[in-house]
Amino acid sequence: MPLIDVSPEVSLAYEAFGDPGDPAVLLVMGFGAQLLSWHEDFCRALADRGRYVIRYDNRDCGLSTRFDDHPVDMGRFIAAVSSGDIPAALAMVPYRLGDMADDGLGLLTALGIGRAHVVGASMGGMIAQQMALSHPERVLTLTSMMSSTGESEYGRPSPEAQAVLFAPKPADREGYVAAAERELVWASRRYGDAAVLRELAAAGYDRAHYPAGTGRQLGAMILSGSRADALRRLRVPTLVIHGLDDTLIDPSGGRRTAELVPGAELLLVPDMGHDRPRQLWPTLIDAVVKHTG
Question: What distance in Å separates the CA atoms of residue 34 and residue 238, rounded to the nearest whole number?
Fold first, then answer.
């Protein structure tokens, strides 16, 4: 899998599908998730609809650059945020979502792509929003999927989903793969499949297991703050997709995003949680193709 320099300090692992002459669609993944979470079959199906599809590992995830020189003690970080000691929290985390957005745009530049359609899921939706806010001239359209605005009162996780998100995962492969079943708490109630979750966890563990990066990514999310005021001024054509079963980022996060962005289209998907079950790929791909047409 290619690794490409996108800045002096960051190289990203990426993979492309389809004809480079077709409109480019950049897929941005979420918190702690490798590019594998954009399933290869999903990418190929989208490419078959006339799109040049690019998926990549964010910094501190998968095979992309790791910031090992900046370890984050999550206990100290959460204590600092909870107590309101934001300067101390800021000092612990070496980057923000804006830096991660620059990575994605840097990938496009390195690939010789001036403008692209950007599709982001979960934290990837936040990064995609930031790309459109910082460099609207580079973003043909924005699709924000299962994401939110950075406002604490919207898109809150259920207590059960939050507990799973922050629960330590076993370090050994067998335990790590088995623990993936916990994620059924935020999956589609109709289509959630423990075997699919275990398969993805096993593939990710074997490819590039790297739990140390999640603390820095979480810090970047928490400390980047609200995008609400900026989203009100966004003029990039925007599609917001959110599953009605989502308990990790409540659908209010999607509704709020669509409410803020002028002219945004909102697609609320029944039977979709904080996941993209194969049974719903036709719905999602049709929506993305229509929006990027």
Answer: 24
Alpha-carbon distance of 217 to 161, in angstroms, equals 18
Residue 99 main-chain phi, psi, to 5 deg: -70, -40
With CA atoms as reference, report the closest residue to 60 among 274, 167, 208, 224. Answer: 208
Tell me the residue type at 89.
A
User: Are the C-beta atoms of residues 287 and 241 closer than 8 Å to each other?
Assistant: yes
Burial class (CB within 10 angstroms; exposed 0-12, middle 13-18, buried 19+) of 113: middle
CA-CA-CA-CA dihedral for 212, 135, 149, 42, to nearest 10: -70
The third-level CATH classification (topology) of the domain covering 3-157+211-291 is Rossmann fold (3.40.50)
- Residue 264 carries which side chain, given as an amino acid letter? A
User: How far, in Å, CA of 181 to CA of 187, rounded?
Assistant: 10
Q: What is the pLDDT of residues 68-126, one digit of tens each?
A: 999 888 788 888 888 888 888 888 899 999 999 999 999 999 999 999 999 999 999 99
Instruction: Provide the β-strand partners of residue 42.
Output: none
Q: How far apart are CA 29 and CA 67, in angstroms?
A: 18
Q: Which residues contact 230 (CB under 8 A, 6 or more apart)?
A: 133
**Confidence category of residue 36, pLDDT binned at 50, 70, 90:** very high
Closest CA relative to residue 146, chosen from 29, 287, 40, 290: 29
User: What distances in angstroms separate CA 257 from CA 40, 140, 184, one per listed residue?
Assistant: 28, 18, 25
Domain boundaries of the chain, sorted by first residue: 3-157+211-291
β-bridge mates for residue 267, sequence order: 241
Tokens of 80: 């600092």
DSSP 184: G
